[in-house]
Amino acid sequence: MAGKKRKKPKINKFYQVNQYIKAEKLMVVDEKATQIGVLNLKDALKLAQEKNLDLVEVAPKANPPVAKLINFAKFKYQLKQRNATGVKRSKTQDIKEIRFTPFIAENDYNIRIKRAQEFLQNGDKVKLVVKFVGRQITRKDFGKALMKKAISALNEDSTVEREPAFQGKLLLSILNPNKN
Question: H helices within 34-173, ranges in order?
Answer without folding.
Answer: 41-50, 72-89, 106-121, 140-153
